[in-house]
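Q: Could you fold this chain for me?
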Amino acid sequence: MSKEAALRAMREARYNERATRSTAAARPARPALRAVEPQPTDPVAPASPADQLCGHRSMNGRTCTREHGHAAKSHRYS
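A: Sure. Below is the predicted structure, expressed as structure tokens.
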């Protein structure tokens, strides 16, 4: 048996083992979610467009801290 065939057999065995397990029996039932009461909105006026940030998201979840609609090609993340 070649190395590739052995790896394929191991992968298929793991897959079959996971498929035979019952996931519903292994997990406890979730409790019912409570209804959330709506929170009163803040009476603060929304920020003007000049005060808002760009908000562009990088691949690792950081957001751009430049002003909204900036002309720079690059973003500054924090």
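A (continued): The CA atoms of residues 60 and 77 lie 10 Å apart.
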